[in-house]
């Protein structure tokens, strides 16, 4: 999914881990103009920009909508597409064409550059679009696309866990991860407890229902940042939620529009290359690609975790 804002702000990625829960409100963003699909964006926010390598989180639905996101570029990141209801068709410059359905994972690794489109027919849509920042060791790799219809699951009294990316509770996703990371959907129906890695930081995002997470009541909308230093998390209520976490991402990055880079000049080059068609067309998409917004008047600065 693209960031379709016409005047995107620089995302100042970073922030120190904290052991106490912190409720971070999301903001409503309409993708594709005033009649576009509304999403709630909880990463990046003014208060905290990353959780591990997770640097972008949009949640949407459940509501009738049609997703129409024209071809647009990405660099230096992975897109993680997760659905609860509906179907979305992915196409990209590699020639990939894949419908994603609930419970399946579409993972696109942009590496040095890729473009893709996303479309759905009008109907109920409910899901999340997430980005993972790639480390220096992987951000120049060739672009790639993966579809995983079957993911590892754990069912215990009170909750079920599906691991999308990385590892959690002894389960490891088959999807390619380039940093120590955890991304999982949890359906909770009774009090339960999940093991965590104390050196990692975590956050929870409710997709439906009402959850109790580490003693905090959480409903759809905000992101609950749990910080680091926890060996487990207590869950309760009746809800479907995403648990995101990982080793704190220490590299300084620049995040603007759909690009993750390391300097202002890199972002300028990414934008120029996209405008000149360097990534090529998205086969099968009938329509024009997105134009990149104008760059801000001030130079974009790489930021670290400590603000």
Q: What order do the helices and strands come in, and which of them pair?
A:
Elements: E1 22-24, E2 27-31, E3 37-43, E4 54-65, E5 68-74, E6 77-85, E7 88-92, E8 97-100, E9 105-109, E10 114-119, E11 123-133, E12 144-148, E13 153-156, E14 159-168, E15 171-172, E16 181-188, E17 192-195, E18 201-213, E19 216-218, E20 223-227, E21 232-246, E22 254-256, E23 259-261, H1 264-275
Pfam family, one: Pirin_C
Keywords: Iron, Metal-binding
Domain Pirin C-terminal: 193-278
User: Could you report the average pLDDT, rounded to the nearest whole number?
Assistant: 92
Helix fraction by DSSP (H/I, runs of at least 4):
under 10%
| Euclidean distance between termini CA atoms | 28 Å
The CATH C-level class name: Mainly Beta
CATH topology: Jelly Rolls
Structural class: mainly beta
Total E-strand runs:
23
Sheet having the most strands: 10 strands, antiparallel
Walk me through this protein's architecture.
The protein is mainly beta and 307 residues long. The chain has one domain (22-246): Sandwich (Jelly Rolls), CATH 2.60.120.10. 4% of the residues lie in helices and 49% in strands. It has one helix spanning 264-275; strands at residues 22-24, 27-31, 37-43, 54-65, 68-74, 77-85, 88-92, 97-100, 105-109, 114-119, 123-133, 144-148, 153-156, 159-168, 171-172, 181-188, 192-195, 201-213, 216-218, 223-227, 232-246, 254-256, 259-261. Strands 1, 13, 14, 15, 16, 17, 18, 19, 20 and 21 form a ten-stranded antiparallel sheet that branches. The longest helix is centred in the C-terminal third of the chain and has 12 residues, at 264-275. One of its GO terms (molecular function) is metal ion binding. Fe cation binds at residues 72, 74, 116, 118. InterPro entries: Pirin (IPR012093), Pirin_C_dom (IPR008778), Pirin_N_dom (IPR003829), RmlC-like_jellyroll (IPR014710), RmlC_Cupin_sf (IPR011051). Residues 1-27 are annotated as: Disordered.
């Amino acid at each position: 999914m693209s960031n379709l804002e016409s005047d995107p702000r620089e995302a100042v990625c970073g922030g120190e881990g904290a052991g106490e829960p912190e409720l971070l409100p999301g903001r409503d963003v309409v993708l594709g103009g005033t009649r576009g699909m509304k999403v709630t964006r909880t990463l990046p926010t003014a208060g905290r920009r990353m959780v591990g390598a997770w640097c972008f989180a949009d949640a949407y639905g459940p509501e009738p909508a049609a997703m129409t996101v024209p071809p647009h570029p990405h660099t230096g990141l992975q897109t993680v597409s997760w659905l609860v209801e509906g179907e979305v068709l992915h196409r990209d410059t590699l020639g990939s064409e894949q419908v994603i359905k609930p419970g399946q994972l579409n993972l696109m690794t942009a590496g040095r550059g890729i473009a893709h489109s996303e479309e759905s027919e009008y109907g109920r849509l409910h899901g999340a679009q997430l980005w993972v920042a790639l480390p220096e060791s992987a951000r120049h790799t060739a672009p790639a696309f993966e579809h995983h219809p079957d993911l590892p699951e754990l069912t215990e009294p009170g909750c079920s866990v599906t691991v999308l990316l990385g590892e959690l509770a002894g389960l490891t996703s088959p999807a390619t991860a380039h940093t120590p990371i955890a991304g999982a959907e949890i359906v909770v129906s009774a009090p339960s407890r999940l093991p965590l890695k104390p050196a990692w930081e975590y956050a929870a995002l409710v997709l439906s229902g009402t959850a109790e997470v580490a003693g905090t009541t959480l409903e759809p909308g905000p992101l609950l940042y749990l910080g680091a230093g926890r060996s487990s998390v207590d869950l309760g209520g009746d809800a479907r939620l995403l648990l995101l976490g990982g080793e704190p991402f220490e590299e300084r990055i620049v995040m603007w529009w759909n690009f993750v880079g390391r300097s202002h000049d890199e972002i300028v080059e990414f934008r120029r290359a996209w405008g000149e068609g360097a990534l090529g067309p998205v086969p099968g998409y009938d329509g024009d690609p997105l134009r990149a917004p104008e760059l801000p008047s001030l130079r974009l600065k790489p930021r670290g975790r400590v603000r």
